[in-house]
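Why WRKY transcription factor 51? Reviewers of the renewal asked for a concrete example.
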Amino acid sequence: MKKMKVDSGSKIAFRTKSEVDILDDGYKWRKYGKKSVKTSPNLRNYYHCSAEGCPVKKRVERDGEDNRYVITTYDGVHNHMRPGIVYFDPINTSYRSTSFSPAIVDCSKQVNHIIN
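Here is what the prediction returned.
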């Protein structure tokens, strides 16, 4: 399987006051590494999104200056919807539950269908 390159401009970080290191963001993650960081006495943990073919990575670490905070950095954009979310489908006028459906949708077909 060919790996997709992540656009370097799609990185975002959150600093959250929390007693737990891993915060639930609705996605499933697979840990692939950890390492010591010079700027912090705590380890930095690395995760990949578990969805097949999704290029997003997540980095989680405790703030080096204030241990009460967790810094979570996301790199990339998910190419699927969050698992377990129910979406309304205006074309079929029904509700459906997703499990890794593509999040990038061709809206031109939907607009043409609604107009015609």
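The longest helix spans residues 107-115. This is the kind of structural detail the renewal will allow us to pursue systematically.
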